[in-house]
Amino acid sequence: MAKGTLFVMTGASGVGKGTLRERLMERVKLYYSISMTTRPPRSGERHGVDYWFVDRSTFLDMRAKGAFLESAEYVGNHYGTPRAPVERHLAQGEDVLLEIEVEGAKQVKAMAPKLGIPAVFIFIIPPSLSELRRRLIVRSKALNEEKLREIERRLARAEREITTALEVGFDYVVVNDVLEEAVERLVEIIRAERLRPWRMENALEKAAERSAELEAELAEMERWMIQDGGSGH
Ligand code: 5GP
Hints:
- By secondary structure, this protein is α/β, with parallel strands linked by helices.
- The chain has a single domain (6-199), classed as Rossmann fold.
- The chain has helices spanning 17-27, 56-64, 83-91, 102-115, 129-140, 145-163, 165-168, 179-193, 201-207, 212-228; strands spanning 6-11, 31-32, 36-37, 52-53, 68-74, 77-82, 96-100, 119-125, 172-175.
- Strand 5 (68-74) and strand 6 (77-82) form a beta hairpin.
- Helix content is 50%, strand content 18%.
- It is elongated, with a radius of gyration of 24 Å.
């Protein structure tokens, strides 16, 4: 069976990856890889749904054991993709979605060919840095000096990521301006990637087959047409 494809969705924090992911998964079948993080949960976030929330020592221990496909530090917290579930689902022929930041995406980009994993890298960008700032402010609801500093750090990181995007070698860039349009672009990308020749092995095999039943009918049809040939009736 053909391996599934690893779809790596990357983009600045606040660009709307979470919402895009939810809408996308209503449209196409994907296994979403739940990341592990040392960041404390935001209100409404659930352990085992949004993230696996763990303490620093658990995270570092797992990293040392090679349990992550990739991992990175982002604004003072650790984030990582647990390796086993991703590999299991890909081996079962399912497509897997990762939602990670750029450093992690670079690691996956470097290792995917070595592991023989077909991987597709999608960069989600905001229409502008100011719009991203607006989204980060709105998301934080009650603001204080500490939160403002964090927003500034996230914005600085986003700017760096966007200006160096071409170096990473993304396969696609999607602007998240109008949500529905961005979702549509993602659906198109995934559907197109599913038509790659290595995903179409079954169809290719079938396309080169002949059916005994249809062949017999066609032979009969040919005989009739030859007998009829030139009579004009
Ligand atoms: P947040 O704290 O806003 O949930 O996430 C911060 C950043 O970390 C986001 O860009 C998010 O995509 C990224 N992130 C989430 N999980 C992972 C992961 O497993 N690995 C890496 N490298 N980044 C992640």
